[in-house]
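Q&A log
Question type: sequence-to-structure
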Amino acid sequence: MERIAQAGDAPRKVGLVWAGAPHHANDRRRSIPLDALSALFELPGVDWISLQNGLRGEDIERSRAAKRMLRLDPLTQLSETAAMIDALDAVVAVDTSIAHIAGALGKPVLLMLPFAPDWRWGLQGDRTAWYSSVRLFRQGTIGDWGPVVADVARALRDA
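Response status: OK
Response body:
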């Protein structure tokens, strides 16, 4: 897609969703401050594409680490979102609809889960019965995203 081609010339294009809907009951546990993902933006060979929609997309302008991320919002139709995801190499996400769309499309997804995740993801393991292309990265301690982000960065680097 032309919009994704604008991201840069790195060999890999990776979509990113760091926050869910603020009104969601578990949002404070599942969403991650964008600057907490700075280790991801240091990875060589990756152009980052924001799949974040709504007000949280404005986090990019306030972030010290994410200045080069391409913003695609507003993505107003499910088909438009799916087309954008399909044009990417992978998606890194918190537990939002984007992770489900990417998983349903068979796109590689690195899903960052809070300590007490939604029931769909189970309580252990790095795979899910729902989508074969999704790999789960779980918090070991409530509220501590550092090890999760480090594991995701390592997985992307080693891929």
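Response note: The chain has one domain: 2-158.
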